[in-house]
Amino acid sequence: MPSAVEVMYMVLIAGELTIGIWGNGFIVLVNCTGWLQRRDSSVIDIILVSLAISRICVLCVVSADGFVLLLSPHAYAQNETVNTLDAFWTLSNHSSVWFTACLSIFYLLKIANISHPVFLWLKLNVTRVVLGLFLASFLTSIIISVFLKEGSWGHVEVNHEENITWEFRVSKAPSAFKLIILNLGALVPFALCLISFVLLLFSLFRHTKQMKLYATGSRDSSTEAHMRAIKAVTIFLLLFIMYYAVFLVVTSSFLIPQGRLVLMFGGIVTVIFPSSHSFILIMGNNKLREAFLKVLRCVKGFHKRRKPLVSQ
After folding, report:
1. Which of 58, 175, 226, 272 has the maximum number of C-beta atoms within 10 A of its C-beta?
2. Per-chain mean pLDDT for the chain
3. Which residues, other chains included, contact 150 with Cβ-Cβ below 8 Å and sequence gap of 6+?
4. Rounded to whole angstroms, how far apart are CA atoms 29 and 208?
């Protein structure tokens, strides 16, 4: 019978999974509804929908990994199970991080004003550049995940002792080593996001300097756009650093036998990133924010109408 800690873990994971799927599913639903109404789609909509779908996949894979490891450790000891989960996690994780990098680059090219010829060419061809990076990153993620799935990396060892404390020890050193090596590739899109952040700051500094030069005291639309983009990229960078640090700690812990408490803690913290970032994307996008506030008003109105009926 699962202990109180394990029950709490399953409740937290299920709650985070529900919140994350709701937030990312909302992004997909709003954009797809807009596509059906307009019969057209923009680059930003394609990136947001793809990012939301990849985040849903990350949430499902991490949750499935945690539940299998907790409820059926012997099934987890099978190479096929581990390789499949690792491959799906790598595909969804790489895609998610790369799509976020595409979003950051899109913000940079659309908002920033930099006079360098290369940047001006990228700005004029923003749609082709971002879509090209988008497709290339997705194909790269598929290739890495297939390589991970088909490669021979050793086996997982699970020593399970069923007693009062229901403890087990798991060691999957070869799997952990390959995950760390292959997922170092996620640092490339992180670096692109960091570069976008620095260039946005540089562009904002130049724009603010020009406004002071012309004695313009109030914020204009360009300044507001810079600030929104910088806030969005900053929050992503902070969440990603936390997410990747936990990933490295938890995955490195597989190099030596560890108890399930480390894995449960890692699973809970890991799911926070794809769950919470969806709501940051919603509040940072005008169309998504308006739709979200409309839903909240409808829910609030429903509860107001329902309250007198309950009191009767």
Report:
1. 58
2. 77
3. none
4. 38
